[in-house]
Structures are given as C-alpha cells and as structure tokens.
C-alpha cells in the first residue's frame, strides 16, 4: 500500500480528506426517496436504488439530469431541469438522513485518525446545504475541521480544486494529505492534486469495480485506512 512512486515514500501524512456518499454513509436510500418523490410530481414512474447508484457521484445537477434522461431527450431534460432541481432539493431536504446509515467502522476510523493527530476535512460533491445537516444528524460533524460541498467552488471532484483548497487551508503540501473515497471522482481529484488516495470497495463507482480505479490502496473501512496511515507514518521521517 502507499506505493505511489511520484511522492517521497518518507513523507508523513498529516491530514485526511474524506468523501461522504458511499464512503461514510450509504445515502442511496435517501436519494431513492427524494428522486422518486420528484419523479411522481412529473408523473414519471419510480426508478430503483440500483439505477440511482449508477448515477450518483458528480453532484446534484448531474444526478437529476441523468434521472430525467431516463425519459426525455436532451431538449426535454433542458426544459425540465430547473423545476426538477427545485422539486428534488425540496424533497431531499425533507428526508435528508432519514434513510441513510453509516458504513461499518466509520466513527471508529475517524476517532483513530484524530487520535493519531490527523487533521480531517470532508469533501463531497453533495451540495453543502445537504451535507452539513447530514453530518450533524449522524454525529460525524465534530470530527471535521472543514466541510466542502459540490457547490463550494466553481469546480468539483474529479477536479482537484476542493482538495487543493483543503491543503492550503491546513497549510500542508498535497503529499502530506490522503484522500479517501469510493469513486473514480475521488481518486482522479487526488491524483490531480498530488495527494495520496485510498479507496473503499463498498460505495458507488458508476457501476465499475473500484479495482479499475488507480489508487494507493483499497481499504475495507475507514478504520483500516487509519491503521494503514499509522503504519505509513511510523516508517516516515
Ligand atoms: O452527491 C454526489 O454526487 C456524490 O457525493 P460524494 O462526493 O460525497 O460521493
Ligand atoms: Mg462518494
């Protein structure tokens, strides 16, 4: 693990940037309820959680465009996107977190990272207005010094912009920071920023195996990520 040869193997990791949907919380059931309530308003048939899991990852607007594209051509999507986004956001905020559950060892992993002195940021493509109350509701907000959403900057993951901003906020070089996520968006953003990246295999990666995604290692849980970072740092100087 941590085999990335572009960085000094001896540089300790001082911060972790952690993804939200598909990494800390299984939010597909929330997406499912909100999307199908929106679809009902448009007299569209319900779609499955499996279909939605393939579309999540590149933020709300991309998601709702993909959802509408199940039924409409490009012009039809364009015509409805504004109203659909309004309906979706209203329904999502209404049920945010009610159907979502944390993955195994998320809080234990965050605790372990903090105990090692790592600084923690959450960078998600979810809108900040969804992410902040969700983290608070699940008791995860206190672990993070910084939370950025998909609408915090002009560009979102897989662009490196939000990750580079965290590095700058923390006063750290990218090679002192590891990003942990469930999708190619996280891995590509981390690579482009020059951060390490660990991936989890249990989230949503656009229907592709996480093994196809270039990373510095696959971890079964955030707790295992914490252990790996500690091992890396013990051999660092
Ligand atoms: O809401 C999304 O599109 C994905 O969010 P994530 O970046 O937390 O996985
Ligand atoms: Mg994710």
Automatic annotation (TrEMBL):
Source taxon at top rank: Bacteria
Gene Ontology biological process: DNA repair; glycolate biosynthetic process; reductive pentose-phosphate cycle
Catalytic activity, as annotated: 2-phosphoglycolate + H2O = glycolate + phosphate
Subunit architecture: Homotrimer.
Stored HAMAP family: GPH_hydrolase_bact (MF_00495)
InterPro entries: HAD-like_hydrolase_sf, HAD-like_sf, HAD-SF_hydro_IA, HAD_2, HAD_sf, PGP-like_dom2, PGPase_prok
Cofactor(s) required, per the database record: Mg(2+)
Family of the protein in this entry: Belongs to the HAD-like hydrolase superfamily. CbbY/CbbZ/Gph/YieH family.
EC number(s) recorded for this UniProt protein: 3.1.3.18
One annotated GO molecular function: phosphoglycolate phosphatase activity
Keyword annotations from UniProtKB, A to Z: Calvin cycle, Carbohydrate metabolism, Hydrolase, Magnesium, Metal-binding
Function: Specifically catalyzes the dephosphorylation of 2-phosphoglycolate. Is involved in the dissimilation of the intracellular 2-phosphoglycolate formed during the DNA repair of 3'-phosphoglycolate ends, a major class of DNA lesions induced by oxidative stress.
Pfam families for this protein: HAD_2
Pathway(s) of this molecule: Organic acid metabolism; glycolate biosynthesis; glycolate from 2-phosphoglycolate: step 1/1
Residues involved in Mg(2+) binding: 19, 21, 182
Active site: 19 (nucleophile)
One Gene Ontology CC term in the entry: cytosol
Record protein name field: Phosphoglycolate phosphatase
């Amino acid at each position: 693990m941590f085999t990335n040869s572009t960085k000094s193997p001896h540089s300790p990791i001082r911060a972790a940037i952690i993804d939200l949907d598909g990494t800390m919380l299984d939010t597909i059931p929330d997406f499912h309820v909100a999307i199908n309530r929106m679809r009902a308003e448009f007299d569209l048939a319900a779609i499955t959680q499996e279909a939605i899991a393939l579309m999540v990852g590149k933020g709300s607007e991309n998601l709702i465009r993909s959802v509408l594209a199940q039924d409409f051509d490009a012009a039809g999507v364009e015509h409805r996107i504004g109203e659909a986004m309004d309906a979706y956001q209203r329904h999502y905020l209404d049920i945010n977190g009610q159907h979502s559950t944390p993955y195994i060892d998320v809080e234990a992993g965050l605790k372990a990272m903090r105990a090692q002195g790592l600084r923690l940021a959450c960078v998600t493509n979810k809108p900040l207005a969804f992410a902040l109350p969700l983290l608070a509701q699940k008791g995860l907000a206190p672990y993070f010094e910084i939370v950025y959403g998909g609408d915090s900057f002009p560009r979102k993951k897989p662009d490196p912009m939000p990750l580079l901003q965290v590095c700058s906020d923390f006063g750290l070089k990218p090679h002192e920071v590891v990003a942990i996520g469930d999708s190619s968006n996280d891995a590509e953003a981390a690579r482009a920023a020059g951060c390490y990246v660990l991936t989890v295999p249990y989230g949503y990666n656009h229907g592709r195996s996480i093994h196809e995604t270039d990373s510095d290692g696959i971890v079964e849980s955030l707790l295992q990520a914490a252990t790996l970072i500690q091992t890396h740092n013990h051999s660092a100087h």
